[in-house]
Structure formats: C-alpha cells, structure tokens
Amino acid sequence: MATIHREFQVDADVDACWSALCDVGAIHERLARGFVVHTALEGDHRTVTFAGGTVVRELLIARDDARRRLAYAVVDRPDVRHHASFQVCPGDLGGSRIVWITDVSPDAAAPAFAGMIDTGVAAIRRTLGAPREA
C-alpha cells in the first residue's frame, strides 16, 4: 500500500478552513472549486464528481471536531483500496496548515491518485487563499 502525503498552508483561519472541509456536501463550493464540480450526500456516503468527469462514491468514516480531522474512503472501485484523511492545524505564520494523507493499493494506482491530489491541493489553495511566498 502506497502513502501519499501532502501538507500545505492556506490563508483561511483554522475555524473557516475546518468549516469548509467538514461541510462534506458542499466541497465543490467551499473547499475545492474547479476540482470538484458536484457532491451529493446519502447518509454516511458521498458521491463526488470531479472536473474531468470522474465520479467516485465515498464512505465518510470519521469526523473529529476537536482535532479538526476528517477521514473517508473510496468504496466503489473494486480494483483499488483507498483511505484518506484531512487534518487542519494552525499555520506557522497565521492561517491554517492542512495535512492530507492518502493510502492506496495497489501501489501502481498511486501515481494517478497523486496527480489528482496535487490538482486538489492547488484548488483548495485557490479557494481558501494561498499565502504569499516569503
């Protein structure tokens, strides 16, 4: 199983960032505009439509408000096992630090997931504000 780890800063404060992240039915509007184009909730499942046309069904596994952590898994791909989590922490210079960790199997699927995750990180930074480089 491969692990994809991304850690990045956004301008939004931790409360605003967590609010956008845990609004699981509106990530296409509040978190990753342009990367995710639609979300639909059905109980503890979420259907996510990406800009490229890919549609996945996810199981929302855990939400921890105290730690600002959300975990989910893609459940409609019999050829791939996927589990991911987001965590929001105070940023080093204000704003927020987001940690996105994804485990995927088989390892051969990791490059495709990493590419999507990198596109997602860019969309989140655009949506929540990317801090200027020092």
Automatic annotation (TrEMBL):
It comes from Nannocystis exedens. SUPFAM superfamilies: Bet v1-like. Pfam families: Polyketide_cyc2. This is Polyketide cyclase / dehydrase and lipid transport. InterPro entries: Polyketide_cyclase/dehydratase (IPR019587), START-like_dom_sf (IPR023393).
